[in-house]
Amino acid sequence: MPTRKAEPPPIAELYGEIYRVVRRIPRGRVATYGQVAELSGLPGGSRTVGRAMKLSTPQMRLPWQRVVGRKSRGAARVSILDPVGGAVQRMLLEKEGVKFSTAGSISLHAFGWLPAADSPARLANVPRGDARPKKRKRR
DNA sequence: ATTCTGACTTGTG
DNA sequence: TCACAAGCCAGAA
């Protein structure tokens, strides 16, 4: 085979994967950009997920409002720059039961999506040690 | 090719 | 908790 430079990663494919992951987020739950990125095979690609959301269209019928920005260890928040879009996202989430604190943050402890325990029904007894294999102490 | 920008995240102070 | 810097990735100029 002649010299064939490593072809660039199929961006479109990755976007498709991102949308696929987003569709798995259950109603009333939220996932962070970073979380969606990892599940899509794009570690560190949180910004790419944000772009994918922005590029999404209504025809896709994508639950984009369930993807939020991480604020701290157990909290998330709306990260859309456009104030109108941000308000829409919040409204849509509240409509499906997601509660916002006075500071405008969402408790991941209460509404964070747990991909691993997605179908088994999140019992009240959800193991605290997230699905993270290796993680030093608390981050 | 280089620089800027953003629906990101994490570390510091 | 807030502000700022750095690292990060893809698209636009």
Our count of helices gives 5
Largest sheet: 4 strands, mixed
Overall mean pLDDT stands at 84
- What is the radius of gyration? 16 Å
Considering DSSP H and I runs of 4 or more, what fraction of the residues is helical? 25-40%
What is the 3D shape? globular
Give structural notes.
This protein is α+β, with helices and mostly antiparallel strands and 139 residues long. Helix content is 34%, strand content 10%. Strands 1-2-3-4 form a 4-stranded mixed beta sheet. Helix 2 crosses helix 3 (46-55). The radius of gyration is 16 Å and the shape is globular. The protein starts with 10 loop residues before the first helix and ends in a 28-residue tail after the last helix. It binds a DNA duplex (13 and 13 nucleotides) through residues 11, 32-34, 37, 42, 44-54, 64, 67-70, 72, 78-82, 85-86, 89, 103, 139.
Throw out a few tags for this protein.
139 residues; alpha+beta; four-stranded mixed beta sheet; 5 helices; 4 strands; globular; disordered C terminus; DNA-binding
Write the topology of this structure.
Layout: H1 11-23, E1 31-32, H2 33-39, H3 46-55, E2 67-72, E3 75-77, H4 83-95, E4 105-107, H5 108-111
Parallel strand pairs: 1-2
Antiparallel strand pairs: 2-3, 3-4
The chain binds a DNA duplex (13 and 13 nucleotides) through residues 11, 32-34, 37, 42, 44-54, 64, 67-70, 72, 78-82, 85-86, 89, 103, 139.
